[in-house]
Design a protein that fits this description.
alpha+beta, 7-stranded antiparallel beta sheet, signal, PEP-CTERM sorting domain-containing protein
């Protein structure tokens, strides 16, 4: 075997090892909300502003309808408590929704038949702002979140460095803010939501809210009393967004895209196959 061929084989082994070494995704420690757990929620059908019937379902939803609306209406605030702490941190989820004006409908729902493991915001005809709060309490005052804050969670307990939100749909972008409160200080961390529309060539994406941003603004991430998520349509009147989970995780470092062990083996095997063909042609 020539020295050149030896070098090529060594390089092929090196590439295979490199790809395996680079195999990394966000290491998930614990789920803050899988958006899969909910209790009974009650909605009322309205026709020209008058209630005509009610119905119950096992999901959670809040909505805001225009005046004299026709359709299914849920309260614009709702608290779902007694949830499994293995899927919802603190065992409670509080939601509210507001619209900029009364010209259209907006709804925020989770753990439904159409969104069994996700949370989704849909607004039609009016910009909207939806809020979800995890405070570890059965009660909440949306005007004073500090009053019922009792989550008492250490976000770094598994060595994590970020909160992760998986975006499965966002046709018009928008803004997403995660606010953390440690009993003394709070900080809202806002990011633009990228356009995500898998059916039209915009794949799912992930937002990372690194703990260092909160720490640099005086928040103790080892003792969080509430987590507040705000989904803002950013003044866009026809808006759809869905999020898959929210959890603590380790953010991948230095890798522009996700590798996997299987990808490393495939690429390494391809290199070896190329070298065999190359040697065969050289012999001929």
């Amino acid at each position: 075997m020539s020295e050149i061929m030896k070098i090529f084989k060594i390089k092929a082994i090196g590439f295979s090892t490199l790809f395996l070494g680079l195999a990394q995704t966000s290491a998930n420690a614990f789920t803050l909300d899988a958006f899969s757990d909910a209790n009974v929620n009650t909605g009322t059908f309205y026709f020209n502003g008058s209630p005509i019937t009610t119905q119950n379902g096992v999901f959670q939803a809040v909505s805001n309808l225009p005046n004299n609306a026709t359709g299914l209406y849920y309260s614009d605030t709702d608290s779902d408590t007694g949830l499994s702490t293995s899927s919802v941190v603190g065992g409670s989820r509080h939601m509210t929704i507001n619209t900029v004006d009364n010209s259209g409908e907006a709804i925020l729902q989770t753990a439904s038949s159409t969104l069994p493991d996700a949370i989704g915001l849909a607004s039609d005809g009016t910009p909207s702002i939806a809020t979800v709060v995890w405070n570890g309490s059965n009660t909440i005052d949306f005007n004073n979140l500090n009053s019922d804050a009792n989550l008492n969670v250490n976000l770094t307990q598994e060595g994590d460095d970020s909160i992760v939100v998986d975006i499965i749909l966002s046709d018009l972008g928008g803004k997403l803010t995660l606010e953390l409160y440690d009993g003394t200080n709070f900080h809202p961390y806002e990011q633009d939501i990228p356009q995500v529309d898998p059916g039209n060539g915009f794949p799912e994406q992930t937002l990372y809210y690194d703990f260092s941003t909160y720490i640099n603004n005086g928040v103790d991430v080892t003792s969080i009393d509430y987590i507040k998520m705000t989904i803002d349509s950013n003044n866009q009147s026809s808006y759809d967004a869905r999020f898959d989970f929210i959890e603590a995780a380790i953010q991948p470092q230095g890798v522009p895209f996700d590798f996997s062990p299987s990808l490393g083996l495939i690429l390494g095997g391809s290199l070896f196959s190329f070298l065999r063909l190359r040697k065969k042609f050289q012999q001929n």
